[in-house]
């Protein structure tokens, strides 16, 4: 058997194991995103949003939806990899992978692929839930799918890194609670950043979530905002950085062998 076949079976086995892990507990892993997005849709989209003016030519509820979909994609991709990798360390079966003929990049790819699938699945469910209540039209399908896939990949890698450094289950939620969620909420999910007073509009420009949300909004609604080529530049640079760091940490056995 060639090494390529060995690597393929190793990757396939790890991916199937991770998919079964979150699909077995779909009530805890997928439904919370639907509940959260549904509440935002009800409160901000219909109860309060019906009195708000249209944004860039679309109703406020439709302006809101791209951000809610991306929130589901990012949070699910991130939390899936964080909990899965920390669980593998806690139960010590990550050590079995390290002594098997599995290079570090196969381990990273297995965990990250499951995170990407869960993120895209959660985002798709939120989009399906919103369809009866909005008139969303897909303006640039390839662009929207590309931003969603790249974002899920980036935050799956970030989740693996968090899983490497976490010392307890409490640590697995620290980054998500205190960094990731504020960045998403302040990244233009609920409002266009141009409406902010100085200097907050300028400060928002250094928030990478702004380009992710605006990029997906451009693909879904056709509103340029700060999306476009710069969205893929930001996502590509950050993804390469996270992929290199995740590979390095696992290859060196940081917090695993020591």
Quick synopsis:
It contains 11 helices and no strands.
- Alpha-beta content class: mainly alpha
Shape: elongated
The rounded distance between the terminal residues' Cα atoms is 33 Å
Gyration radius, rounded: 19 Å
Order of helices and strands: HHHHHHHHHHH
> How many strand elements?
0
Residue stretches low in confidence (pLDDT < 50, at least 5 long) are none
Helix content: over 70%
Major sheet attributes = none
Describe this structure in words.
This protein is mainly α. The protein is about 75% helix and about 0% strand. It is built from 11 helices and no strands. α3 (about 30-45) packs parallel to α6 and α7 runs parallel beside α11. It starts with a helix and ends in a 6-residue tail after the last helix. The model has no long low-confidence stretch (mean pLDDT about 85).
Core attributes:
single chain, 258 residues, mainly alpha, 75% helix, elongated
Write the layout of secondary structure elements.
Layout: H1 3-24, H2 26-29, H3 31-47, H4 60-90, H5 94-99, H6 104-130, H7 141-165, H8 171-189, H9 200-204, H10 208-221, H11 229-252
Helix pairs in contact: 1-6, 3-4, 3-6, 4-6, 4-7, 4-8, 4-10, 6-7, 6-11, 7-10, 7-11, 8-10, 10-11
């Amino acid at each position: 058997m060639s090494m390529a076949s060995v690597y393929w079976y190793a990757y396939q086995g790890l991916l199937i194991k991770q998919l079964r892990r979150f699909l077995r507990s779909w009530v805890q892993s997928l439904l919370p995103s639907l509940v959260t997005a549904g509440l935002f849709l009800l409160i901000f989209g219909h109860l309060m949003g019906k009195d708000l003016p249209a944004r860039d030519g679309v109703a406020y509820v439709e302006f809101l939806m791209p951000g809610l979909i991306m929130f589901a994609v990012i949070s699910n991709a991130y939390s899936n990899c964080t909990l899965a990798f920390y669980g593998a360390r806690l139960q010590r079966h990550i050590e079995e992978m390290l002594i098997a003929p599995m290079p570090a990049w196969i381990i990273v790819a297995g965990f990250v692929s499951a995170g990407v699938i869960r993120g895209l699945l959660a985002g798709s469910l939120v989009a399906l839930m919103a369809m009866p209540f909005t008139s969303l039209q897909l303006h640039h399908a390839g662009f929207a799918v590309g931003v969603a896939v790249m974002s899920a990949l980036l935050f799956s890698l970030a989740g693996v890194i968090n899983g490497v450094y976490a010392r307890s289950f409490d640590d697995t939620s620290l980054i998500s609670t205190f960094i990731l969620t504020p960045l998403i909420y302040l990244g233009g999910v609920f409002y266009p950043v141009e409406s902010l007073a100085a200097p907050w509009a300028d400060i928002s420009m250094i928030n990478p979530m702004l380009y992710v949300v605006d990029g997906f909004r451009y693909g879904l609604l056709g509103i340029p905002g700060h999306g476009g080529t710069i969205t893929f530049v930001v996502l590509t640079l950050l993804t390469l950085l996270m992929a290199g760091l995740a590979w390095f940490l696992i290859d060196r056995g940081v917090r695993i062998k020591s």
